Amino acid sequence: MFLGMDIYSWIAAIVIALIVTFLPITLPFKIVLAMVAMACFYFGRKYYHNHKNGGAETPSMSSAESEALASGILKALGGKDNIVKVDYCATRLRFEVHSYASVDEAAAKAAGAEGVIRPAKNACQVVIKGDVQAVYDALRKQL
């Protein structure tokens, strides 16, 4: 976001400026084309933001739910002694673990995780449906 405008607003402003500047038509037609372009970008952007996640909002969790999920994931990963480092992104909790064999994928799924990904020997990622940051915060309190 730059000067209060996101990328879609900047693209719309550039397209409108090009329409008004370079098209060899009369001014009233340029104004109408600029308004049509602005409406297309406005409604297109609004549609995109409302439907990029299938039209659904990210489900929120209560603090009790996020603490229960964090506790279950912590047990599934072998306890706090097995955790070296924890971080998160939009959909996952990312862990660096001491013992790769201590990670129990079935227990993590039973605790409420969508799945477990193992990208490296001492790393695993727990996919969560919902508010990942709330689960991360609850997990940090337990560590």
TrEMBL record:
PROSITE patterns: PTS_EIIB_TYPE_1 (PS51098). Gene3D superfamilies: Glucose permease domain IIB (3.30.1360.60). Keywords: Kinase, Membrane, Phosphotransferase system, Sugar transport, Transferase, Transmembrane, Transmembrane helix, Transport. One of its GO terms (molecular function) is transferase activity. InterPro entries: Glu_permease_IIB (IPR036878), PTrfase_EIIB_Cys (IPR018113), PTS_Glucose_EIICBA (IPR050429), PTS_IIB_1 (IPR001996). Residues 67-143 form the PTS EIIB type-1 domain. The keyword Membrane applies. The active site is at C89. Its EC number is 2.7.1.-. The keyword Transmembrane applies. It comes from the Bacteria. The chain crosses the membrane at residues 7-25. This is Glucose PTS transporter subunit EIIB. It comes from Faecalibacterium longum.
